[in-house]
Design a protein that fits this description.
This protein is of the alpha+beta class. The chain contains 10 helices and 12 strands. Helix 5 crosses helix 8. It binds adenosine-5'-triphosphate.
Length: about 300
């Protein structure tokens, strides 16, 4: 007996942001991307992507960080939904409603999160029974961080970041994120990294085994001492005040601090939930950060919250 997929009128998917615990940037490849070795962690700052059947494609944005996000077909979430429709031969459009809480152009992969959410939500809405590898293939074609945001947790990324394997991680990690008022464009940070390293012989990137051992042991202090980001100098070169933010957070007692991805968000690892509140208050009260968020990682990737008739 063949089962008939149930078509659902509305699906909501919650998708986390990411922080790179390690981001090793190798040489620039012929296709313009850089070869990476990165350790991603999904953290509990979420966007929500809701999809419904509609007579035509559309998107609506809401949430605290929606400013500056395109409300048209150039939005990554719409592009992802349309790529999946093309791939699966679906010709029924959807309306997307994206609630943005992840900082925009902040190095936390907010756009990629929305794309991951749209893929998972639409696959369910359209009743597609795609193998995970197929969905990840579509995700990888749309953006390097998107496959990770489907799976979440803590993972090692290679290639341009799109090949992900889970990393054994014990314990929960408490993070404080210092947001910037001004975003940084990812391509410009990579270009600055190339400029700063022009005279350096850049070797193939390798993940740090000591960092991976710290994660496996649930050793917060060990992890804090190994946080590393090859894009950090480039992000600070473009936004020099990030150096001061890092110094301030460490001065206020963070175990470790790092520019998140291509920045300008700065991520601080702290001992526990109480320390996270203390640091968030200190950063905000001192005027060091325009805005502050707390989150715990690792958390699962894109997760269906509700799939229901309305
Ligand atoms: P990454 O960490 O993956 O490099 P980021 O967090 O620095 O990315 P995003 O928030 O993903 O940056 O946004 C980068 C740009 O992408 C934005 O300035 C915006 O113009 C565009 N964009 C397209 N779709 C979205 C979306 N759904 N959410 C946020 N930005 C989007």
């Amino acid at each position: 007996m063949t089962s008939v997929p149930v078509l659902l009128p509305r699906v909501s998917v919650r998708v986390p942001a990411k922080v790179n615990l390690e981001l090793r940037v190798g040489p620039r490849r012929a296709d313009g991307y850089h070869e990476l070795a990165t350790v991603y962690q999904a953290v509990g700052l979420y966007d929500l992507v809701e999809v419904t059947h509609a007579p035509q494609w559309g998107i609506e944005l809401t949430g605290r960080t929606r400013e500056g996000v395109p409300g048209d077909a150039s939005n990554l979430a719409v592009r992802a939904a349309q790529a999946l429709a093309d791939h699966a031969g679906v010709d029924t459009p959807v309306h997307l409603r994206v609630t943005k809480e992840i900082p925009v152009a902040g190095g936390m992969a907010g756009g990629s999160a929305d794309a991951a959410g749209a893929l998972v939500a639409c696959a369910r809405l359209w009743g597609l029974d795609l193998p995970a590898a197929e969905l990840e293939g579509i995700a990888a074609g749309l953006g390097s961080d998107i496959p990770f945001l489907i799976s979440g947790g803590t993972a090692l990324g290679s290639g341009r970041g799109e090949h992900v394997v889970p990393v054994l991680t014990r314990g929960k990690y408490h993070w404080v994120f210092a947001l910037s008022t001004q975003g940084l464009s990812t391509p410009s940070v990579y270009a600055e990294c190339d400029r700063l390293r022009a005279a350096t012989d850049v070797t193939a990137p390798e993940p740090d085994q000591v960092l991976l051992a710290a994660l496996a042991a649930g050793d917060r202090d060990g992890l804090a001492g190994r946080l590393a980001n090859d894009l950090q100098d480039a992000a600070i070169s473009l936004q020099p005040d990030l150096g001061e933010v890092l110094e301030a957070g460490l001065g206020f007692g963070a175990l470790g601090g790092i520019v998140s991805g291509s920045g300008p968000t700065v991520a601080f690892l702290v001992r526990n939930a109480e320390a996270a509140i203390d640091l968030a208050v200190a950063l905000a009260a001192s005027g060091t950060a325009a805005d502050v968020r707390r989150a715990v990682g690792p958390v699962p990737g894109a997760t269906i919250e509700a799939a229901a008739a309305r």
